[in-house]
UniProtKB/TrEMBL annotation:
It comes from Tepidimonas aquatica. One of its GO terms (biological process) is lipopolysaccharide metabolic process. Belongs to the LapB family. GO terms for cellular component: cytoplasmic side of plasma membrane. Keywords: Cell inner membrane, Cell membrane, Iron, Membrane, Metal-binding, Repeat, TPR repeat, Transmembrane, Transmembrane helix. This is Lipopolysaccharide assembly protein B. Pfam families: TPR_16 (PF13432), TPR_19 (PF14559), Zn_ribbon_LapB (PF18073). Its main location: membrane. Residues 351-375 form the LapB rubredoxin metal binding domain. Coiled coil: none annotated. InterPro entries: CellSynth/LPSAsmb/PSIAsmb, LapB, Rubredoxin_2, TPR-like_helical_dom_sf, TPR_rpt.
Length: 384
């Protein structure tokens, strides 16, 4: 049976028409999706500017679905998850980016950097350490070293923290000498707890020679020498503190008075002269006034020091200390009044972190609230 060529004449135009129609439908769908992706992106940006993080996340998720190859959308989405505290989802977003074989090297490092911060925020210090270590030698090298320093400090790995601080010395982020001194002081405390006092003493003596401006190093050395029965050596360390870090002398004024009195009048006179010289060159400090009153042999003269302190600086704590040597003339009311005054003075005797406002009765070199070093002024709340 001969082939009917008329069917071919009908089929070719029909196939052409169907192909043209299909291409138009695909083009329309592509344009529709193209419009939808930027619309979702801008809607997410609008929510983000209005601090509506949940709505912004939903919009960015939609944008990512419409354009799965847009790395910037993944970075924005991961950052939003981290800011909201949804660290598991932030980790998944950044791990998905790292799993892409077509991701450029710069974006891969950026994703690794974001993933490391996800782990750090989530408190997964071991995984954060591994992620930041992988960034050493990249354009995120300095930031990775700073983060690793924070990881080592949170993990109380003081030897590695000291090494990292030494490598960061001289970088664009300033000096790390005092921070490294804190790390070595923490190592000395660990050695003391392990009964390795000789090594701790050698560590601190070398530290004060290398970093004499570290107040904590002198304080730790003085306390260790006193523990070993070397009171004269402890006093020498406190005198060196007054020379190299005079602002911190109020922290050790009580110890200076107590240890010098234990060694006899010549040492007490020397300590009194040191404290008086300091008081003449600095604003009144309650701890120094109290230490001077302790060193006075005449109690009446010691009480007059509190009066002098009150002339320069009104202080409820100083007034309470002055009243401690005065009888109120009412045996029944006197203990009640003193108890009320002591209670009112307690909040004023605390130390307050200048960075986060965390208050504590004892002085901290490392703030428990914000984890900052040397953020506590060496004066109590009432004197600030």
């Amino acid at each position: 049976m001969p082939f009917d060529w008329s069917w071919l004449l009908w089929a070719l135009p029909a196939a052409f028409a169907l192909g043209w129609l299909a291409s138009r439908l695909d083009l329309r769908q592509w344009r529709l999706e193209g419009r939808r992706a930027p619309r979702a992106y801008f809607r997410g940006l609008h929510h983000l500017l209005n601090e509506q993080q949940d709505q912004a996340i939903d919009a960015f998720v939609e944008a990512v679905r419409n354009d799965p190859d847009a790395a910037e959308l993944y970075f924005a989405l991961g950052g939003l998850f981290r800011r909201r505290g949804d660290y598991d989802r932030a980790v998944r977003v950044h791990e998905h980016l790292l799993a892409r074989a077509d991701l450029p090297a710069a974006d891969r490092q950026r994703a690794q950097h974001a993933l490391a911060h996800d782990f750090l925020k989530a408190g997964l210090l071991d995984r954060a350490e591994a992620a930041f270590t992988a960034l050493l030698g990249t354009r995120y090298d300095t930031d990775a070293r700073l983060a690793l320093l924070h990881v080592y400090e949170r993990g109380r790995d003081w030897s590695r923290a000291a090494e990292m601080a030494e490598t960061l010395e001289g970088s664009a982020h300033g000096s790390f000498r005092l921070r490294r001194a804190h790390h070595l002081c923490e190592q000395a405390m660990q050695l003391q707890r392990q009964q390795r006092t000789t090594e701790a003493l050698a560590l601190l003596e070398g530290l004060v020679q290398r970093t004499p401006e570290s107040a904590r190093a002198w304080v730790a050395l003085a306390e260790l020498r006193q523990t070993l029965g070397q009171t004269e050596g402890a006093l020498q360390a406190l005198q060196a503190l007054a020379q190299h870090a005079p602002a911190h002398l109020p922290l050790v004024a009580h110890a200076l008075a107590q240890w010098s009195r234990a060694l006899g009048k010549p040492h007490a006179a020397q300590a009194r002269a040191l404290l008086q010289t300091w008081a003449s060159q600095h604003p009144p400090a309650l701890d120094v006034t109290q230490a001077l009153a302790t060193l006075d042999d005449d109690p009446a003269h010691g009480r007059r020091r509190y009066v002098e302190h009150l002339r320069h600086e009104p202080s409820l704590v100083a007034a309470n200390l002055w009243l401690a040597g005065v009888g109120l003339g009412d045996d029944e009311a006197e203990p009640l009044v003193r108890r009320a005054l002591e209670r009112a003075c307690e909040p004023l005797k605390r130390y307050r972190c200048a960075a986060c406002g965390f208050e504590a009765r004892q002085y901290f070199w490392h703030c428990p609230g914000c984890q900052g070093w040397d953020t506590y002024p060496p004066r109590r709340v009432e004197e600030l």
